[in-house]
Amino acid sequence: MHPLYAKAHSWSAKVIGAAIEVHREKGPGLLESIYEKCLMRELALQQIPAVQQIAIPIEYKGFVFEENLRFDIFVDQCLIIEIKAAESVLPIHKAQLLSYMRLVNAPLGLLINFHELTLKDGLTRLILPGADRP
Hints:
Blueprint: H1 5-26, H2 32-45, E1 50-51, E2 55-60, E3 63-68, E4 73-75, E5 79-84, H3 91-104, E6 108-113, E7 123-127
Parallel strand pairs: 5-6
Antiparallel strand pairs: 1-4, 2-3, 4-5, 6-7
Helix pairs in contact: 1-2
């Protein structure tokens, strides 16, 4: 099992609750950037440690460089949150989230589409392959 899986699993429930609160307050139909700022505020209010768009060392065949990754929110260095406000979530959105999870070795990721009338219909929880197995 991934050493951060239990922590990420615990945070994911709290983050989903925070996202539901933002959706309840703002409803669907706004820009992703608005939901991202509102969710960051809600996470801060609920004392959930989170940062946005961080610089991560990337390694490729012995070449290491830093790149500002564009994933939306990183919770306690174990859970990535990608925010969407789209008609539908495409397979590329899930693939992108999984790539980010691999790059930072995060065991869990949440793809949250605020466009849905009911937020639970816009939630996708991804697990890094093997992270939940001993």
